[in-house]
Amino acid sequence: MPKAVVLGAAGGIGQPLALLLKTNALVTELGLYDIVNTPGVAADLSHIATPAKVEGYLPPDDGLAKTLKGADVVVIPAGVPRKPGVRACSSCRQINAGIVRDLATGIAKTAPKAFVLVISNPVNSTVPIVAEVFKKHGTYDPKRLFGVTTLDVVRASTFVAEVLGDFGKAPDVVVPVVGGHSGVTIVPLLSQSSHPLPSDYTGDKLQALTTRVQFGGDEVVKAKDGAGSATLSMAYAGAEFAFKVLRALRGEKGIVAPTYVNLDADKSGGDALKKEIGQDLDYFSANVEIGPEGVAKIHPLGEITEYEQGLIKAAVPELAKNIETGVAFIQSSK
Ligand code: NAI
After folding, report:
1. Distance, CA of 41 to CA of 15 (rounded, Å)
2. Going by C-beta distance under 8 Å and a sequence separation of 6 or more, which residues neighbour residue 249?
3. Which residues does the annotation mark as catalytic?
4. Ligand 1 within 6 A of 7 CB?
5. Residue whose CB lies within 8 A of the most ligand 1 atoms, among 5, 34, 68, 259, for a mutation test
6. pTM higher than 0.90 for the full model?
7. pLDDT tens across 290-330, in order?
8. Ligand 1, atom 33: nearest CA belongs to which residue?
9. Which atom of ligand 1 is nearest to the CA of 120?
């Protein structure tokens, strides 16, 4: 115990994420699945002198089921990344929706109790897709399903440290990022930063920093110039979140991280949050306490500024649309 699995393990995110999981002594088994190259990635990683036993499978001969057997934590970075100049890649969304649906079906059949961490974009829709698949199979437990929004949190920490002129502070800066995981649905609560911004960070400056967190992915897509989107920083962020989940599974207390969850996962916390945002949304990213059974508590937004209230107001309709798209995709799938 515990076994971690990466679905999409040969990709730009999958490989470094698998590497980071392999280097964590909490992981004792690591299962890797992709439609290409997983035996090679697994053989390579298996030579690293850390406890995890590594296996890699391809689709033939029930490779997905073999990979998922006995999984405690399943991370999904399978899919296609977006291209430069394309903020909302509709063909990517459609392809990823199908990939995530099929992988979720495999999880429902083979590892229905696993904690599932969804990285594949658009997270605002792919998390509801996984939920709907699990509902169809009668295996849905909202406490065990998480959308990974950690890259937004990591970026917020880095960019705030940059504003403070001290990169050394980056690992300690904590900024809750709530809402969803694309563009305007990403709401960094900079007023709650553990390290306050300089007093002149109002108006245009505050807006520019907020926009940088919301659209940070564009910087990477542009710089990679056709070679994909964020992979290394995403692998780091995905591993950071997976490690928190692994520690919670071991019974460590007080583990809190922003993540995109079904607000039914903690009814009273979820209802309180719905009141704060003034909308009956099913999914939202908030600070969530994670325990051995999964979501233990959904935290309220707490005190936020008028500016941040405006950001939430702008996020909500877009988020509602994205959630509806995910649910409708499964309801219209055979
Ligand atoms: P990539 O193209 O480098 O890797 C994707 C991998 O998925 C490939 O190895 C591919 O063979 C595999 N794959 C495709 N279909 C599969 C299937 N049916 N079963 C198993 N594996 C399958 O892409 P990259 O850059 O690793 O991105 C992956 C996903 O992560 C994209 O959807 C991207 O938008 C998303 N992403 C999410 C972020 C987040 O913050 N949550 C940040 C950056 C990217």
Report:
1. 7
2. 2, 72, 73, 115, 292
3. 181
4. yes
5. 34
6. yes
7. 999 999 999 999 999 999 999 999 999 999 999 999 999 99
8. 81
9. 32
